Amino acid sequence: MNHGRLKPALKLAIKTGVFLAVSLTAFYFYDTAPTTKHSSEIFEPRLISREEISGSLSNYILKNQFPNQIALGAGSASPLYKIGYTLDEEMQDYARQLLTNYKPDYAAIVLMNARTGEILTLSSFERHKKYDSNLALKASYPAASIFKVITAATAVDKAGVEPEQRIAFNGGNYTLYKKNVLSDKVNRWTRFITLKEAFARSINTAFGRLSLEKLNPLDLQDYANRFMFNQEIPTDFEVERSVASVPDEKGYELTEVASGYNRFNTLSPVHAALIASTIINEGKMPTPYLVKNIHNDKNELVYSGDNIHELDITRQIIAPNSAEKVKEMMEQTVLTGTSRKTFRQLVRDRNFRQIEMGGKTGHFTGTNPKGRTDWFVGYASDGDDRIAIAAITVNVEKWTVKSSALGEMMFRKYFNAKKEEKLAAAVEAKKLAEPAALTEN
Questions:
Q1: Which of 44, 66, 301, 406 is most enclosed, with most CB atoms within 10 A?
Q2: Which residue, among 198, 150, 153, has the nearest Cα to 176 in the 3D structure?
Q3: Which domains does the chain have, with CATH numbers?
């Protein structure tokens, strides 16, 4: 690549953002070679793709390693650059502590800044070290009822279904028998439930009926793709692709997909956190990233990962009012739904009354890793900070901790730490103000 001066037209295109329309995966990486004889160096920008950083970093992240230095570029003589990460050390350590203490067979926790896409926690645990890799990057887990978020988003954004829409269904809450879900007959055993309640309580047959009565299969596939299923997530380390296959016609298979009652549609924890981020972020999907900055051997800043958030075109996945409706459903999960017992104390805690929280649980037996997969995917916000989480455990024989409990503890830890930071900042500001007040007097 030519590291000389860029043509003025290209510089202008970069400044005005036109280049972003051409490449969503490019950002600035500054070459430190001076172009004049002046004592101060002039940084000439060159473009480097996320794929290049990912190619150098991914093998480390896969092994749960976060090196302070890596080589960027081909060849053994490639220079070493110092890497700064977006990880919140306190939250990363706390997640690792939780998983070490509870010791599930397999587990992962991903915590993300829902506005910017910064990954704050990327933690993985295996009791017996079968895979010995970062399980947060795997997309072999059944998406299970987490896929109900996609179904609900399709229903409100495309089909115009309201959260209060009543659905008639027969059969049990968590089963999905053909004779029940394919029947539209209303008899004395038929029950009625709103979409919001069906989501919060994860009623499979109700979501199956919703897909048959209100949704077009092609639309559901389209929204799955919008939410980055079947696609490579554009980040600075490799994440396996999540898979979602929707049948072309209405029938029992469609009800299985819409309710998450199958093991063939799969999801990674990183992707799951990204889905929750989209809902709390007014339907906009941020670009997740792990590298915050890069410095050269002279300690000069040559790359800033924050440019991803500033320069990328944020994708509007669903309309803001549609995201608000899905968020309403996710709130009910922690208030009255499948996570109500886990979140009861946190919801009642007066220190958390201003914290907006929502989530979705999911359960299904998977094969890779083999065991009962348990999901909690959710978000929490105090208005200033918006975070999204994906917690997953896979249990072979015994349960040691619910994923929703991991999510609750992570939320509590994060906002308690933020509260302490704000109090400390207020005390410091008061100290700085006191000498000024004395001088004025």
A1: 406
A2: 198
A3: 93-289+314-425 (3.40.710.10)
